[in-house]
Design brief:
29% helix, alpha+beta, 4-stranded antiparallel β-sheet
Length: 72
Amino acid sequence: MQQFELIAPCHFGMESVVKNEIYDLGYEISEVSDGRVTFTGDEEAIARANIGLRSAERVLYKVGSFKAQNWD
């Protein structure tokens, strides 16, 4: 199965609660930062996380990233 990078944004200070909820669902955390928890999962993980995460605001699917050199 294909693995996706998923992001669960949350209120500041709730990162450890969201992290524990993701661990309880059985997924591996890749990064915890202020206001979000990043984890990996398959197609089923997207649905299970949307239903099972009580402290996260939503579940986002990361489609890409880039480094901004300046504000322009």
